[in-house]
Amino acid sequence: MSDFQRRDDFIPYNVPDITDAEINEVVETLKSGWVAKGPRTNRFEQEFAGYLGAKHAVAMNSCTAALHIALLAKGIGPGDEVITTPMTFASTASTIIHTGATPVFADIDYRTGCIDPDEIEKKITSRTKAIVPVHYSGQVCDLDRIYAIADKHGLFVSEDAAHALWSRYKGRLIGNKLQGAASYSFYATKNLCTGDGGMLVTDDDEIDARARILSGQGMSHNAWNRYAKGGSWKYDIAEPGFKYNMFDIQAALGLVQLSRLEEMQAARLKIAAKYQEAFGKIDALDPPFVPDYTTHCWHLYVLRIVPELLTIDRDQFIVELNERNVGTSVHFIPVHNMSAYQKRFGFVDSDFPMAQKHFERIISLPLYPTMTDEQVDYVIAAVTDIVETYHK
Ligand SMILES: Cc1ncc(COP(=O)(O)O)c(C=O)c1O
Asked: Hey, is 358 helix, strand or coil?
């Protein structure tokens, strides 16, 4: 019998790691007289690009915006097909639709949750123009294989790196020496948080130039500076654009968070190692498999249950965790299960069997730098107690 002791206070699924340093920088920004896109946004772009060793970084108000702009900057539009994974947040696919192109899903590699390169190959047609692989949870996609497919068929690769800041493929940071583009998210739950925010990173001068114009209302370059001394009131609209830019209050958070990234990552890695060690010993659990080519940033800890060995399913497992005061999430309900996609493209849930099987088994556990050792141990104890209570 388990000696599990239920705690009284709730462990949230996520809490952003904001210190006095971030708060002070935001206050400084507010006092500076420049709160819109300006000097701090520019510095954040430079420091972010410098951190990754990338040529260009364009700061946006979300990763969704960055994903949209990456495709538009490359001229993706009506009549084109873009291959991506169903195991992602909706914006990976909706941004394809917003360009006028058609999203084409390729199933995942069940071992990692990332898109399966063999499935990509099967989906290529004469209309395919791009691939949007998602570095799911901080795992990284098998990029050598994906870029080999892209090279063979002349396709653009726009990496969805929303989860993958700090992750490495074969020892190299995602975003470093990019052939295409990569989009990062700084949403509240991410490894670097600006509340909401994103960054488009590329080594391609043309993508960079077009992304700057498109994300800033289509205005000619440096129009953000038109209210400063020496700035010009004249601007042109080169093409109809979007209001997608980051602003300096977000960048203030981003600059400090970037300077604290290694410290925050060290805490994440420690928690993930504890989970891996504990859950690897339990037969009714299937902890994340990390291939040799991956250095995982542990944005998410996605635990799979083995329902064949339990008397409860994933949904009930989450209820049990909630009753034990542990917050959770599910990443993701596959996009092809969503009503908008089923109506528009005729998908049924079983269309992507690996994504579906993965979805039915997953639970994202709390994992953030401010978690205490006691909270981590408690989450492990709660999961273990549920398995012991409901083991067949
Ligand atoms: C895989 C993935 N791509 C894109 C996004 C969109 O990011 P944002 O909220 O910054 O627009 C998310 C959001 O969580 C995501 O999980």
From this structure: helix
